[in-house]
Write a structure and sequence with these properties.
The radius of gyration is 33 Å and the shape is globular. A hairpin with a 3-residue loop joins strand 1 and strand 2 (about 60-65). The chain is built from 36 helices and 26 strands. The N and C termini lie far apart (about 70 Å). The chain is an alpha/beta fold and about 900 residues long. The strands form 5 sheets. Strands 6, 7, 8, 9, 10, 11, 12, 13, 14 and 15 form a 10-stranded mixed β-sheet that branches. Strands 1-2-3-4-5 form a 5-stranded mixed β-sheet, with helices on both faces. A 4-stranded antiparallel β-sheet has the order 16-24-20-22. Residues about 455-475 and about 905-919 have low confidence and may be disordered. The protein binds S-adenosylmethionine. S-adenosylmethionine binds near residues 305, 394 and 489.
Length: about 900
């Protein structure tokens, strides 16, 4: 169950009449516990509670329903209960049906509220369903509740109004939802006269069956689109006439409303019943956008970029600097005024703004700083100088774009209430401003400089409708022109191979037609680079970390270095939102400015490292990037991919199946070989494959199961891809073979996060490596020593592409680029001895596998020592001593790499013209 579903379930429970006997089980069911588990608890088998009326679910919660007025004592009893500790309960909860108290035992956080109010505190209880929520949701469950309510309404309305679900009417539906959200917010914040005016009016004047709800809403919307002075001619009923003039485009245009069912009307009233005053426009906006998206609706409430993550971008981009200026100004009135003036001219631009959360947070943070300036200057009631229209965005989809505008409007109102007071905020709020500063369109096809011009006033077309503005009407004046501009945001995470045709075209539109191997986000960076280069704009976008790893580096970074400098960067970090499809996505944030800065920073978890230069691999280091190489730059053997059967597994066997064939047909033994790739290398459990030389096909076909496999392979290939079809005439053989009749080194193509070294082993002649591993035939043991070294692992970790927590080892990207100094004969003898020691140390633990042996936590001491000796000998060859740390290792490796690849790998590759000049 997700957070929204749990919230809905406990809200439902709180609405039911309280049933003391049933409550604990109903509560546990609301948190997703299975019927079978509850049945056992009910039967008493698993209930180890030692408190009267108690129900104790192991590792979860200890609940007790008690006599009226004894909730506090009962909670105390639950806390003191030995059973609570023994069963490792995370929470305790006591209720008498009127009051409810609960406590999270580790943090000591508590809930104490009326029973009917406990759904408002459900955020604290979410860990009961295994959901570790971000703090903001925990503290403000209203955003989840509001999303859940509106989602139900949206789905019900689409069910009833099938035509509104069609593409042509989706925009109307989204616009309608934006109007509702505004009304809910306005009625709880005194923007409408009297609390709850909107929901109350709908409740009172629409029929219970929902049949005329649309007419009531239409009348209200029409009123909000009519100036008070023009109301008399409009024939408004008194209940509609109470609503203020809002417009700003929000209520202009068609006031058509979808038809309501009884359920839809109830959902609307439920949504209106929430307290929208507390809504967080950034959190709510991100959540609500999923409502209008058929694909995302399932993960409702999960697409939330946390405020800390947004601040990872905004703080180093410009907020830290503003705060430093504030600290430096102290109480100096002139300096404070200068800062206020500076902030009034700052423009923030998000080219993939979604529901505007980056813009909202930037706005709120700046208002906080401005309020502090006003406080220090003794002008707390002064109106804000920060124009909302300086926070600009582009968003592809219309619903988030609408929500972004609404979120900013709500944020401005909330800041006004907070810093200036309710009265002042209300006085200036209505009517809404009709300007449109969020563009709905494809950012990669639009001119960013006209959406967010660096200076001057841009195109002077004034929009007449805030919420339905065509693209060519988006450009409006910037207030206080001539200030700084900051580009920020979180463009879509889309791997190179997952791009749609349109997205590939977008890549071409920004000059990356020949670099389709790049992730989609690279197009936003490259487009932004032009703005950074031509203006004093600084940019920081959240990006997939793959643009700093593997093959993508040499495609993107020359472009970056030719136009901008890196001012800060984050080491790859796991993207922390709970959307299932983002699980395991590693991100980075790269700050780009036009001119080199002195104070460059690398953020690595809690650590901030200052350095002179940031490498494309996001480590302190030179502007050097490695290009994939077809052969090694060092004097080492050729590494190839293993053999690829392309057989739909027809020629591959589990070892049991192979043994069964051989025991029945002993001649089959000569056609069956050991087989495996990285998985088998690490787990130590090889499979088998059928391996038939061309001149032995007739013999092989005499063995029925072998013949069956060959026939099955032919059939598979005939119906598979082009290459497979070509190989269908040789179904006895692998499609691609790099096999040689001699011993070889096998190297894993992925290195799991938990392995201490690159997995490598010697395989004997006859073993067939599949294409999920690399092979070096005839490699001397020196090369085993090199691949098994810390130096090589550090290089792989830095250069290679990532795969979840691990790395994707590659011959062209990692092995062929690895710089090895020329080795003397003595070096080779020493390294060979080290390799032998490692192999002997492994032998001593037979049959332990590589996975067992190389877990950094449990690596056997003799093997660890053998690796240390290997590292010692190899590192002395590089610098005459052990490296102090990985930073030093990488510095040396990049220095050697640069020398060995000479001019081709420098940051600004020589153009044809400069090369000619040099010659
Ligand atoms: C990862 S989301 C980030 C949005 C928001 N900052 C957040 O955290 O929820 C990326 C947004 O970019 C939008 N988008 C995708 N491609 C786009 C394009 N070519 N131009 C403008 N927006 C785009 C998506 O619709 C989505 O709202």
């Amino acid at each position: 169950m997700n957070a929204v579903e749990i919230e809905a379930a406990i809200s439902e429970l709180a609405l039911q009449p309280f049933d003391a006997a049933e409550f604990p089980f109903a509560f546990l069911a609301a948190f997703g516990n299975k019927d079978t588990a509850l049945k056992r608890l009910r039967a008493g088998n698993n209930n180890t509670s030692d408190v009267p009326g108690g129900v104790l679910l192991r590792n979860n919660i200890h609940i007790a329903v008690c006599e009226a007025g004894t909730v506090g004592e009962t909670l105390q009893a639950l806390r003191a209960s030995p059973a609570t500790a023994k069963a490792k309960a995370k929470f305790i909860l006591a209720t008498d049906g009127q009051a409810l108290e609960a406590e999270e035992l580790v943090s000591g956080e508590t809930i104490a509220c009326d029973y009917s109010d406990f759904p408002n505190h459900f955020g604290l209880l979410l860990p009961l369903a295994g959901i570790t929520t971000i703090k903001e949701i925990k503290d403000n469950p209203i955003d989840v509740r509001a999303t859940g309510r509106l989602n139900k309404l949206y789905v019900e309305l689409l069910r009833e109004n099938l035509d509104w679900a069609k593409d042509e009417r989706r925009a109307d539906m989204n616009h309608f939802m934006a109007r509702l959200i505004f009304c809910f917010f306005a009625e709880d914040t005194d923007i409408f006269n009297g609390e709850g005016l909107f929901t109350r009016t709908v409740d009172r004047f629409s029929d219970r069956d929902g049949s005329n709800t649309h007419e009531v809403l239409q009348a209200i919307f029409r009123a909000m689109n009519t100036k008070i002075a023009e109301r008399a001619a409009g024939g408004f009923r008194p209940w509609a006439d109470q609503f203020p003039y809002v417009n700003g485009g929000l209520f202009s245009g068609s006031t058509e409303v979808p038809r309501f069912t009884r359920m839809a009307r109830t959902y609307l009233l439920h949504a209106g019943g929430l307290n929208w005053k507390e809504i967080n426009p950034d959190i709510f906006g991100s959540m609500i956008q999923a409502v209008a998206d058929d694909e995302e609706r399932g993960a409702l409430g999960m697409h939330y970029t946390s405020v800390p993550n947004i601040l990872k971008v905004l703080n180093p981009l410009f907020l830290d600097d503003l705060r430093a200026q504030l600290a430096e100004a102290g109480s100096n009135e002139r300096k404070l005024l200068n800062l206020r003036k500076r902030m009034a001219r700052i423009r923030v631009f998000d080219p993939a703004c979604g529901s505007g959360n980056f813009l909202v947070i930037a706005y709120k943070q700046m208002r906080e700083i401005e309020a502090e300036i006003n406080r220090r200057r003794g002008e707390p009631h002064l109106g804000s100088d920060i124009p909302l229209t300086n926070f600009r965005g582009i968003e592809l989809r219309d619903f988030p774009a609408e929500i972004a505008r609404l979120a900013l409007i709500i944020a401005e109102f909330q800041c006004d209430v907070l810093y200036r007071g309710q009265k002042e905020a209300l006085a200036e709020f209505l009517p809404l401003n009709a300007e449109n500063w969020i563009v709905c369109g494809n950012a990669l096809q639009l001119d960013w400089l006209s959406v967010c011009p660096p200076a001057g006033t841009g195109v002077k077309v004034k929009a007449d409708d805030l919420f339905g503005t065509p693209l060519n009407q988006t450009e409006i004046d910037f207030e206080n022109e001539g200030g700084e501009t900051y580009i920020c945001g979180n463009p879509p995470y889309l791997g190179a191979k997952k791009k749609s045709k349109q997205q590939s075209e977008d890549m071409s539109a920004v000059g990356l037609g020949d670099a389709q191997l790049l992730d989609y986000v690279a197009a936003f960076i490259v487009k932004g680079l032009d703005v950074v280069e031509s203006t004093s704009t600084a940019m920081a976008l959240v990006s997939t970390s793959s643009i700093c790893q593997g093959e993508q580096v040499s495609l993107l970074w020359p472009r970056i270095f030719s136009k901008a400098a890196v001012s800060f960067a984050y080491r790859p970090f796991k993207w922390a939102n709970s959307a299932a499809k983002n699980a395991g996505v590693f991100c980075t944030i790269i700050g780009l400015v036009k001119d080199e800065t002195k104070d460059k920073r690398i953020y690595d978890g809690e650590i901030v490292r200052r350095c002179e230069s940031i490498s494309p691999y996001l480590i302190p280091g030179p502007k050097v990037y490695c290009k994939p190489e077809a052969s090694p730059i060092s004097a080492v053997s050729q590494m190839k991919m293993g053999s690829n059967s392309v057989d739909g597994k027809r020629l591959v066997l589990e070892s049991d199946a192979a043994s069964a064939i051989v025991s029945k047909y002993p001649d089959a033994a000569s056609f069956i070989r050991m087989y495996g790739g990285t998985k088998e290398l690490v787990s130590g459990v090889p499979r088998r494959c059928i391996w038939i030389e061309d001149d032995k096909v007739d013999d092989a076909n005499n063995i029925p199961p072998i013949k069956a496999a060959i026939d099955a392979c032919r059939e598979y290939r005939m119906s598979a891809g082009r290459d497979a079809r070509k190989a269908a005439s040789r179904p006895h053989a692998f499609c691609y073979s790099t096999y040689e009749e001699r011993d070889f080194l096998q190297v894993g193509n992925t290195i799991g996060g938990a392995l201490a070294f690159v997995p490598v082993d010697i395989k004997r002649q006859g073993f067939v490596s599949n294409h999920n591993a690399f092979v070096i035939y005839g490699a001397p043991l020196v090369e085993f020593s090199i691949i098994a070294s810390t130096l090589h692992k550090v290089w792989a970790e830095t250069i290679a592409g990532r795969l979840g927590d691990g790395i994707r080892y590659g011959n062209t990207v990692v092995y062929n680029t690895f710089p090895v100094p020329l080795l003397t004969e003595q070096n080779k003898v020493d390294l060979t001895a080290c390799a032998e020691d490692i192999l002997l140390a492994r032998e001593a633990h037979f049959p332990a596998t590589i996975a067992d042996l190389y877990d950094p936590e449990t690596m056997p001491e003799n093997l660890r020592r053998a690796h240390e000796r290997n590292d010692e000998v190899l590192e002395r060859i590089y610098i005459g001593r052990r490296f102090k740390n990985d930073t030093e290792r990488l510095e040396k490796l990049f220095e050697l790499y640069t020398k060995m690849t000479a001019a081709t790998a420098t940051a600004k590759p020589a153009t044809k013209a400069t090369r000619r000049k040099k010659a």
